[in-house]
């Protein structure tokens, strides 16, 4: 058993119990829960809020308040799959959504449309 086998499940469990408090504070904290969405087609090459060019094949995401460069463990509550993304954009600006993922990150989670997720800042 590796350290990864121990730490990853512990992080997932920790976020499951802290999500409600984070929701009340608007997800400005290190963890939270809510709906994830993913960027649709047509964003390729456009500039993100951080100034980077959007790349749907990268493991990046948009979050309303976490600093650019923050790494976040996103776990699908439906599939149990997790992916680590780097924040490089702002959003989503649709009510109830807490993170907007690239197509690559959404595939890693096995997403079908929007998904309930937990977030943990690493």
Tell me the strand order in the biggest sheet. Answer: 1-5-2-4-3-6
Poorly predicted segments? 10-27
CATH topology tier name:
Barwin-like endoglucanases
Number of domains: 1
Gyration radius, to the nearest Å?
Answer: 14 Å
Q: Give the ordered list of helices and strands.
A: HEEEEEHE
Strand composition percent: 25-35%
Pfam families: DPBB_1
EC number: 4.2.2.-
Function: Lytic transglycosylase with a strong preference for naked glycan strands that lack stem peptides.
Signal peptide: 1-21
Summarize the structure.
The chain is of the alpha/beta class and 122 residues long. It has helices spanning 3-24, 103-109; strands at 31-38, 60-62, 71-76, 82-89, 97-101, 115-121. It has a single domain (3-121), classed as Barwin-like endoglucanases (Beta Barrel), CATH 2.40.40.
Describe the structure.
It is a single chain. By secondary structure, this protein is α/β, with parallel strands linked by helices. It has a single domain, classed as RlpA-like domain (Barwin-like endoglucanases, Beta Barrel), CATH 2.40.40. Helix content is 24%, strand content 30%. The chain is built from two helices and six strands. It has helices at residues 3-24, 103-109; strands at residues 31-38, 60-62, 71-76, 82-89, 97-101, 115-121. Strands 1-5-2-4-3-6 form a six-stranded mixed β-barrel. β3 (71-76) and β4 (82-89) form a beta hairpin. The longest helix has 22 residues, at 3-24. It is globular and about 40 Å long. Mean pLDDT is 83; it is low at 10-27.
């Amino acid at each position: 058993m590796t350290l990864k086998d121990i730490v990853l499940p512990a992080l997932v469990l920790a976020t499951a119990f802290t999500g409600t408090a984070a929701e009340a504070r608007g997800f400005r904290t290190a963890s939270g829960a809510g709906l994830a969405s993913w960027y649709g087609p047509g964003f390729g090459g456009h500039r993100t809020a951080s100034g980077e060019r959007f790349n749907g094949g990268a493991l990046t995401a948009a979050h309303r308040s976490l600093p650019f460069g923050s790494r976040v463990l996103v776990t699908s509550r439906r599939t149990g799959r997790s992916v680590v993304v780097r924040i490089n954009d702002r959003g989503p600006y649709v009510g109830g959504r807490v993170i907007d993922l690239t197509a690559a990150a959404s595939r890693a989670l096995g997403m079908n449309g929007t998904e309930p997720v937990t977030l943990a800042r690493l």
